[in-house]
Specification:
- There is one protein chain.
- This protein is of the alpha/beta class.
- Among the domains are: 4-144, Rossmann fold (3-Layer(aba) Sandwich); 426-436 and 448-496, no CATH class.
- It is built from 20 helices and 18 strands.
- It has helices at residues 20-31, 46-56, 71-83, 93-97, 99-104, 117-129, 204-207, 217-231, 247-257, 272-280, 295-300, 307-320, 339-355, 375-380, 389-392, 407-422, 432-444, 451-465, 467-480, 492-495, and strands at residues 4-11, 35-42, 60-64, 88-91, 110-112, 139-142, 148-150, 178-180, 183-189, 192-194, 212-214, 235-238, 261-265, 283-291, 325-332, 359-365, 426-427, 481-482.
- A seven-stranded mixed β-sheet has the order 2-1-3-4-5-6-7, sandwiched between helices. A seven-stranded mixed β-sheet has the order 8-9-12-13-14-15-16.
- Helix 1 (20-31) links the parallel strand 1 and strand 2 (35-42).
- The longest helix is centred in the last third of the chain and has 17 residues, at 339-355.
- Bound molecules: cobalamin and iron/sulfur cluster.
């Protein structure tokens, strides 16, 4: 008996990363002869997907979930699919960290917890054969009386190579190309799972249990060569949580792939010799979880990193491989952070951007996730988790999510950081006073009465409504402002 399955991942308009989770689950199902369709759509397209469910009547419909705004279209679509009578299944990190909560959303029939490949196979078999679900490891479900059941967890897949991401199910692979330095056809690949570290805010300790598993070199090479032969990719972006889970082995992997690359590194790796190796092997950019400029905050989240190393690592990059772009991410509003420690982070961001012309520093506002090591602390400090799945969709790393970060100030801080230190926008002399004001705010840590932001939003809305003003803006904005188009994929007006 074979099933017809829809797997759906809603994305926001700026994110164009292949939906690896459902690409792997699709492979597991296809290996067993099932028919699978993948949808990777922006949230506003959810009705179109539901229309196809009505027309094609799949045996079950699966949704990939991440905590935050992406949940809203996921919930809308799940409700509509459920109303059509198709069984609904949630998977992905969000559903994994709160399966019982997810089942409280009445439209969710099943949750596949953690790695989905084998659980999806066994679940499909049980569904088609009309068997009970109690023996499917890693499945959460409701019985006929509506009682939730969380089955025992499924052990991790021992050989990652047993499953491969089904690229051929994506309708438009070139849509996932990124720019990587001078290379225009870089594509994300995913070659390991997990991370050996234990950062207190991260999903890794609770979901991946600090394990780290790579694909074999032969597997990675086969995938990359296929993408080269069929789509002419000219660089890769290693999308892994932590690329260098085993340093020497992964260096050999990068050398064997022999394509310009980007990926995650921790600052302690950035010794001169390592930076030289990165440069020699064609590294174009790196993502670095810097998190905080304060040692006390880093210790409170078990980052296992010295604060001075952030500046030291970025200095080494600037000295030995200045063409490598460093994307450093920071978290504001971690539970133990004092105002002075927040100041340390804001100051550090400014210094890093002075040290390295190719450093981009972004901030996220802390969001507590259930099960993460910091969760009990967040609750103890008065954080009240949302009571519904729609409530979790309000989470947003660009605004305050906890009682100790004001929602609006978080948003303002995030926007100013984006303009000054991610886009590194620079303006025509006419815009100088405006940028000066933003910089003053940053130095003073003053994120109230954001009049210039409100004026910009109102002005932007007006311009958007009037045809000739819109055309004028599109013509003038690129001349008035210089910004990093790679990090600011939106229109020029968003970078000002
Ligand atoms: C690449 C990546 C992105 C990409 C693309 C994400 C995508 N298309 O899914 C981009 C850059 C767009 C991105 C954005 C964000 N991300 Co992100 N991202 C990742 C990263 C590094 C890899 C995701 C991935 O491809 N994994 C590989 C696959 C194989 O694993 P998987 O997705 O977990 O899938 C497996 C299982 O979960 C399950 N499964 C997944 N989906 C489904 C669906 C069904 C039906 C079934 C049965 C099973 C199943 O089976 C899969 C195979 O075993 C993860 C960390 C990680 N390692 O997972 C963070 C991660 C998922 N991201 C995270 C976050 C917070 C975000 C953002 C909210 C951050 C932001 N900038 O706002 C946004 C949200 C984007 C959105 N769509 O709303 C968090 C999520 C935490 C949470 N509580 O949900 C993570 C875990 C990072 C972290 N360390 O905390 N992200
Ligand atoms: S190093 Fe990155 S992926 Fe690993 S636990 Fe820390 S935040 Fe998570």
């Amino acid at each position: 008996m074979s099933a017809h399955v829809f797997l759906i991942n809603f994305r926001n308009h700026r994110d164009m990363y292949p939906p690896f989770g459902i690409m792997y689950v699709a492979d597991a199902l296809m290996q067993q002869g099932h028919r699978v369709r993948i949808f990777h759509e922006t949230g506003d397209k959810w009705r179109d997907v539901v229309r196809l469910v009505r027309d094609e009547r799949p045996d079950w419909v699966g949704f990939s979930t991440i905590t935050g705004p992406q949940l809203r279209p996921t919930i809308e679509a799940t409700r509509a699919v459920k109303a059509l009578g198709a069984p609904t299944v949630w998977g992905g990190v969000h559903a994994t960290i709160m399966p019982e909560e997810a089942l409280k959303e009445e439209s969710v029939d099943f949750v596949i917890v953690n790695e989905g490949e084998i659980t999806a196979q066994e679940f499909t078999a049980a569904l088609l054969e009309g068997r009970g679900f109690e023996n499917v490891l890693g499945l959460a479900w409701r019985d006929q009386d509506g009682q939730p059941h969380i089955n025992p967890p499924r052990p991790f897949i021992t050989n990652l190579d047993d499953f491969r991401p089904r690229w051929e199910l994506l309708p438009d692979i070139p849509a996932y190309f990124l720019q990587s330095g001078p290379y225009q056809r870089a594509i994300p690949v995913y070659i390991s799972r997990g991370c050996p570290f234990r950062c207190g805010f991260c999903y890794n300790e609770v979901v991946m249990k600090r394990t780290w598993r790579p694909h074999s070199q032969a597997f990675v090479l086969e995938q990359v060569r296929w993408l080269q032969d069929h789509y002419g990719i000219d660089a890769v972006d290693y999308a892994d949580d932590y690329l260098f889970g085993r340093i020497k082995a992964m260096q050999r992997m990068v050398e064997a792939v022999a394509l310009p690359w980007s990926g995650q590194v921790r600052v302690q790796l950035l010794k001169p010799e390592f930076v030289q190796w990165m440069s020699d092997t064609g590294c174009q950019w790196v993502n670095i979880g810097a998190e905080s400029g304060s040692q006390a905050v880093l210790d409170s989240i078990a980052k296992d990193q010295k604060a001075w190393m952030i500046e030291w690592g970025v200095r080494n990059l600037a000295e030995y491989a200045p063409h490598i772009e460093a994307n450093l991410s920071f978290i504001i509003g971690l539970p133990a952070e004092t105002p002075a420690e927040r100041r340390d982070t804001l100051d550090l961001i400014e210094r890093l951007c002075e040290i390295h012309p190719n450093a981009r520093c972004s901030i996220s506002i802390y969001m507590p996730y259930p099960g993460t090591p910091l969760w009990p602390d967040a609750l103890a400090r008065g954080y009240q988790p949302p009571q519904s799945q729609m409530g979790w969709s309000e989470f947003d790393i660009h605004k305050g999510n906890t009682p100790w970060v004001d929602e609006t100030e978080g948003r303002i801080m995030s926007e100013i950081c984006d303009i000054l230190f991610v886009g590194r926008s620079q303006g025509h002399w006419l815009l100088k006073p405006y940028y000066g004001l933003l910089r003053w705010r940053w130095r003073k840590g003053f994120f109230k009465w954001y009049v210039e932001g409100a004026l910009k939003t109102k002005g932007g809305q007006l311009v958007e409504r009037i045809g000739f003003l819109r055309a004028l803006r599109d013509k003038l904005a690129p001349r008035l402002v210089r910004y990093n188009a790679n990090t600011h994929r939106g229109p020029a007006a968003e970078a000002i």
